[in-house]
Task: inverse folding
């Protein structure tokens, strides 16, 4: 290789290296962000398309009816465990009715924030409300009352109870219970 | 012999003489230019292809949004149902967190009555919930921390019909409670205390069986 060609070859290598460096920089700072953006936009499109298809599918009369039905079912499921604040008086009547059906005597029920020394639940969606129940009955009626209360929907939790035959009369044992119910907080409150 | 001499007449005086052709140099120059050219071309191709794809995707998204806007009523219904589902999930999760720590007492009463010997009369049952403070190692490490743990106590008050058995029936009842399939996994300790109940000049021996539930055990 003569001297002039050697010089040209050195120049060529320099040009290649410079262009490779430039290409790398262009790829890193121009093309790569563009490719990432394209990927993001593509993912966004897939999501939008999915949402659009869902909306399109739910636009029919049947689909709307199904959705409404589904929402009612979800509300019902929540209603099995938590009671609306407006329905709280009805729960008191429900428990009173159980007591009437079981035929206990001297029945009383009162609602208060704290009866038990167990820490009450204060959640984002439900609050715990406690009820105190007193009556006189025999053991069988008490068991029937307890069973009915534990089967009640919305759920009523028996936190504490006592039945004691202080007057030596098995038919009129003194009963007291502390019950808990879950009260739904208003949505958005 | 006289040798013939060539005379060189240079009228241009060394200027404008064409360079001698050098194929190696031409090839090297061509490669020097072609390689960066192709690199540039490739990059431009990638960039323009990506730009076209980007513009198509943006157009598609816009079309989707336009379509969704046209179906706003259905979209509102969907949004409402999603909100309702989330509320239901959150609400039930919150209730489950507390309800899992509570007990169903009806099966417990049935079991007590089933295990009660014939010679013993059930005079009372009492369930109380309380708390105990316990020092446990901190999860984050470091010094121990004091935590409050809920505890449940079940008191069963019984009276022996006859004092002849000398509390043998009570011991059996206590043992049955301890080994019962129902109570065994739930109970921690069982203690018995004894007392005398005088009523109408008759003295009866009464027993109080106190069952401490295991922490977090469930019926």
Result:
């Amino acid at each position: 290789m003569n001297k002039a060609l050697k010089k040209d070859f050195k120049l060529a290598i320099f040009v290649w290296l410079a262009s490779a460096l430039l290409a790398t920089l262009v790829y890193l700072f121009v093309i790569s962000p563009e490719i990432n953006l394209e990927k993001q936009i593509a993912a966004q499109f897939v999501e939008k398309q999915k949402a659009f298809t869902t909306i399109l599918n739910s636009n029919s009369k049947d689909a709307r009816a199904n959705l409404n039905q589904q929402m009612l079912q979800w509300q019902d499921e929540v209603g099995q465990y938590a009671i609306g604040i407006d329905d709280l008086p009805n729960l008191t009547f429900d428990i009173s009715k159980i007591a009437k059906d079981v035929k206990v005597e001297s029945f009383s029920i009162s609602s208060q924030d704290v009866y038990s020394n167990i820490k009450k639940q204060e959640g984002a969606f439900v609050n715990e409300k406690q009820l105190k129940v007193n009556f006189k009955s025999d053991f069988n009626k008490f068991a029937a009352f307890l069973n009915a209360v534990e089967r009640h929907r919305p759920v009523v939790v028996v936190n504490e109870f006592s039945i004691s035959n202080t007057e030596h009369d098995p038919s009129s044992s003194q009963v007291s219970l502390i019950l808990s119910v879950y009260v739904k907080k208003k949505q958005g409150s | 012999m006289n040798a013939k001499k060539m005379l060189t007449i240079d009228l241009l005086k060394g200027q404008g003489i064409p360079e001698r052709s050098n194929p190696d140099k031409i090839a090297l120059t061509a490669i020097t230019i072609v390689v960066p050219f192709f690199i540039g071309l490739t990059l431009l191709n990638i960039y323009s292809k990506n730009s076209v794809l980007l513009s198509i995707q943006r157009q598609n998204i816009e079309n989707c949004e336009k379509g969704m806007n046209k179906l706003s009523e259905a979209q509102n219904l969907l949004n409402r149902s999603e909100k309702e589902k989330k509320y239901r999930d959150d609400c039930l999760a919150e209730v489950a967190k507390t309800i899992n720590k509570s007990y169903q007492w009806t099966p417990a009463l049935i079991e007590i009555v089933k295990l009660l010997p014939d010679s013993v009369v059930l005079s009372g049952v009492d369930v109380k919930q309380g708390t105990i403070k316990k020092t446990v190692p901190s999860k984050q490490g470091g010094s121990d921390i004091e935590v409050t743990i809920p505890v449940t106590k079940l008191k069963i008050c019984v009276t022996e019909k006859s004092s002849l058995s000398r509390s043998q029936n009570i011991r059996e009842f206590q043992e049955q409670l301890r080994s019962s399939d129902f109570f065994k996994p739930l109970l921690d300790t069982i203690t018995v205390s004894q007392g005398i109940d005088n009523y109408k000049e008759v003295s009866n021996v009464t027993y109080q069986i106190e069952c401490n539930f295991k922490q977090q055990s469930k019926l």
User: Anything to note?
Assistant: DSSP finds four helices and four strands in chain B. The longest strand of chain B covers residues 120-136.
